[in-house]
Structures are given as structure tokens and as C-alpha cells.
Amino acid sequence: MGKHIEILRKEISKYLNNDNIYFHYKGRVSLYAILKAMGVGSGDEVIIPAYTCVVVPNPIIYLGARPVYVEISEKTLTMDIEQLEKKISSKTKVIICQNTYGLSGNIEEIISLAKKYNLFTIEDCTHGFGGLYKGRPNGSYCDAAFYSMQWNKPFSSGVGGFMTVKNESLNEKISELEKEKTEPGFMTKLNLRLLFFTKRYLLNNTTYWIMVKTYRWLSKNNLVTGSSSGGEISDAIMPEGFFMNYSEVQAKEGCRNIKKLPELLRLRKSNALKYTEFLKNHNKRFVAEDLFENHSFLKYPLFVKDRELFFEHGRKHKIELGDWFNSPIHPVQDEFEKWFMIPEDFPVANEASKHVVNIPTDIKNAEKLLSFIEKYIDEII
Fold first, then answer.
1. Low-confidence ranges of the chain (pLDDT < 70)
2. Of the four, 97, 143, 195, 381, which is 20 to 30 A from 172 by CA?
3. Are residues 39 and 151 located together in one domain of the fold?
4. Is the pTM of this model over 0.85?
């Protein structure tokens, strides 16, 4: 194991109080490994929220199983616990509990249902590393958890993911799977270094929108390492070389960025409080204060009437805005049946995917953003 990977493992362990950490090239690869270790295969069903990223149902389908979606709560944007039990069948094997924008929800109730039906549970902590749920680290409740270190996650190594294991019965199988990982090649590592350079020295308020557009086009066409490659969005077929290992190149970047996490967590929470107070004072939709204890606010969801128009305002004023999740299985926009999804069956998730804009919480000048929002306050829901 490389020097920086071992250093990063120790840093991550401090947050999670768990030494059973396994690294992968991306978080979705970690999910795949967990599902495979749990024996998920043909004929099985895995329950997930109907407001997620396509890279969550993909590994389920890669293994021959079927994702089963559950409506989300309008208040929390996490899985609606009252709808969950209705989706459990004799084929159900796993429930995935998603941390959305940094908020975990109903973990104890989900685990209780899983025990009732003898099911595995997985925490999707791709948005939640460093946050707490009722005083315990996100990812410490279920049989296993997976995390992301993509560009916009709690801390970044460019791309990258890891998993933690609580259920000791899974460790032997996961250790065996470790031997099957392929290694990132020279061009992959070079690609990553170029992206690190670009993000560090070329990305700013002026270049943000053109860089995001360019990056997404390049990643969609598999010309750079992106959050989602073209194949992952166009079809649910496992890409060649998918089960890939983590590299020292990524770990070195991760070590640099995880040092900033405590400050970022404080800043995110502070800005979220400012956003909530502002929206409340303007009689707009806001994240309820009773959720704050369990919310690390990777992003803050802002509901707008016309998202594309609001993005145009953002581009004009050089304001960074995000579009998680622009569909119930972001960023897929059509042929949902390939992922066993019917958006109209999930009105809350479908409506959120049409109206949510993510506003950044890791900025030091929240007042500038609030001035921008106030300028277009009539377009906020």
C-alpha cells in the first residue's frame, strides 16, 4: 500500500472510528464491492430512494439485480420512511440509506425494518463524510457504507471512493474482492494530474460556468475522468475496467484536502444557517431548523420556479450554482426504463428534480450570494 493511501486511511479513520476501510477508484465501485460481498445477484431487489444519482442503481443492475425506488420526504428529501415497508418483498436483499446534500434521515427506523425482514443495510455517505447523525459519524450505523471523494464532495481527491465495514461477516468476501481490482494506468493518472492543475489554478468565478460545461462534455464523451462517463448515463451496462483501484496520485490530493475539512464543516453549517434565516424572513422554502443537528450541508437546496432561467442569472452574475439532482436518477433525462424507474410514480422526487438548485455552502462571502438571491427573490419558491 502506498504512503499517501496509508496516511489518508488514518485520517479518515479519525472521523469514523473504523479501521475497516477499503479504497476504490470511485465511490460507485465501493458500492459495487459491498453489494457483491453481500451476495446480491440475479433475481434480487435493492431498495434505494427515488432521488439519487444514476451511479447508485447502476452497480445494482451490473450484478443482475433490480433497483426498487422509494418516494422521498418533502421535508428532508431523504427516503420517506412511511413508504419504505410497502416496497419490501420476498426478493429484497438490501436497503440503501442515502445521505442527501449532507442529511441522513430515519436511519434507526430503516435498520429496524431491515432486522425485521433479515435484510442488509448500506449507508450512501457520498454527501455525508464528516457529518454526524444523532452524535455518531455518518456511515457508522449500517452493515457497510460507501463514500465519495469526487470534486464536489465533503473533501476531494479529484475522483475516488472508499467503503467502511461494520458487519464483520462481510470482511472475508471483501478482502477476496480486493484481489480483483485493476490498477489505474499511466494515462489515467496523467489525466488526473491535469485535472488537479486545472481546478487549482484555472477554476474561478469568471471561468466556472464555461469550465463546468466543458468538463461535463469531455467526461460524457470519455475524454477526461469525470463524475459520470457517457456509458454510465446512456445505458446500465458495466464499463470496461470499472472495478478499479485507488492510486497514490489521488491519495496525495486527498491528504491535502482532508486537512481543510474541519474548517469547511464549520463554514458550511454557518452559511446554511444564514441561508435558512434569509429564506425564512422572505417566506420562502428553507431547510427546517430541527434538521440542522444531523445535517452537514454539503449543498443547500434552493427551490426555484424556473431552474434554467435561474442558471442563466447565475452565469450572468458569475455565481456558482449546482444541479444535483436534475432528474430522479441524475443526470439521466430519458429512457428511464433502463434503470427500472418511472419518474411519474414519485411525484415528490420528480418535482424536486425539476426545481432544486444547489447553492454552495463552502464560500467565505455568503453575503454576495444572498444579494444575488434577493435580486431574484420572486423566482424563489
1. 197, 199-230
2. 97
3. yes
4. yes
